[in-house]
Amino acid sequence: MQDIALPTDILAPPKEDEAPETDVFLWANNLVTIKEELKIELFFFNKHYVVYRSQIHKGLRRQMEGLFIDNLIEYVLDGAEKGMIVRGFEDAETEKDVLQRTRLSKVDNAKMVLNWLKTQEHEIETFVEEEHDFKRIKGILVRCSHSTLDKPFYVIKALPQTLIMKGKESWMLRNGSFVPFDAEGALKIPADNQLLVLDQDIYVFNPAKLASLFGYDAKKYTIADTKMKLIAQNFRLSVTPDQTVEDMLKGKKSIMTKLQKVDPTGITQKDLMDHAEDLDLPLMTDDSGAIIIMDSKDLSVFVNLLNEDYIESSLTGARYEITGKKPLKVAEDTDLI
Predict the structure, then answer these.
(1) Which of 80, 138, 228, 281 has CB 3.0 to 4.6 Å from 276, enough for a Cys bridge?
(2) Is the pLDDT of residue 75 over 90?
(3) Residue 185: per-residue pLDDT
(4) Could you report how far apart the first and last alpha carbons of the chain are, in Å?
(5) How does pLDDT run across 308-329, given as a tens digit for each residue?
């Protein structure tokens, strides 16, 4: 255990962020002449970000190019003519003629999906409806490669359940009569541009899809970053050297959400620890008085205390963790007459 005062860059970007930024305009321009020669591979991923391989009939090759490649190229090249710029996804809200970009390293679930393809492709199973179930599929991903490209690029789209038909639940209309659906399932691919991954960059054509597919909310991340810097200025924490607070926050939506509301300047370290002791909460200090944060459970208790999520009933003495607080309105004297 190492007693440290948290640095102001506690949520500093990881090493992947040191990679040079890609040029989406150059990518689109270079792709025009080779797009018909691309090798396009199709994958699904489910709600737990497990990836499955899927075969594509050669008759769908032209449709795949149209649905996943052509619209992207057209959007980027048309945007270049209109003066479209690329801006950090975390820097501002969506604007006209602005294409947003974020780092793959910041979007843990997207990184998890791509790691299947980059480091454990031999473990990817072929999708079989009877075993894997279309209803569990969350998104579709295509990997595009070419001999002239240093690395493949990836196009990702959400796959709403409304666009999936399972054979056992569907009928077909043929010659004026409904007949049994004679396939395992069918799906309609969304035509809109959503997400493009070039090396370590994710180009966000549809911000809502980045949130729904991978749970990444840039605004929440930015606010959490600011709050953790305020915490570093007002509290002394003792953190294990092999795990940063950023690591503890990964995938912890409840903590990230609570950090949006807390005021780290509204309570002193002594008062917070006295309250934790009164409630017998498992939060301790080291010999120097720094609060020990060993894992995400300790961090959750710490943030809950800052958010005043623990109470003791004055009637029964029972202790509770509360998930929602609605301030009581104090009645005016005139309301009581």
Answers:
(1) 281
(2) yes
(3) 66
(4) 61
(5) 888 877 788 788 778 766 666 6
Count of residues in the chain:
337
Residue 313 and residue 184: Cα distance in Å, rounded? 57
Which residues have C-beta within 8 Å of that of residue 216, sequence separation ≥ 6?
102, 106, 107, 108, 109, 110, 210
pTM of the complete model beyond 0.85: no
Across the strands, what pairs with 137? 46
**Does residue 10 register a pLDDT over 50?**
no
Top pLDDT among 106 and 198 is at 198
Cα 248 from Cα 222, distance rounded (Å) = 16
Distance CA(2)–CA(42), nearest Å, equals 46
pLDDT tens, 157-183? Answer: 998 777 666 666 677 667 777 666 666
Burial class (CB in 10 A: 0-12, 13-18, 19+), 90: middle
Alpha helices in the chain (DSSP H): 24-31, 61-65, 71-81, 108-119, 129-132, 207-214, 218-234, 245-249, 253-259, 269-278, 296-306
C-alpha–C-alpha distance, residues 8 and 12, integer Å: 9
- Which class for 267: exposed (0-12), middle (13-18), buried (19 or more C-beta within 10 A)? middle
Cβ atoms of 291 and 3 within 8 Å: the answer is: no
The pairs formed by 27-32 with CB atoms below 8 angstroms and a separation of 24 or more are: 27/76, 27/153, 27/198, 28/72, 28/73, 28/76, 28/77, 28/80, 29/77, 31/69, 31/73, 32/73, 32/77
How do strand 237-239 and strand 51-54 relate by DSSP bridges?
Answer: unpaired
Within 13 Å, how many C-alpha atoms sit on residue 158's CB side?
17
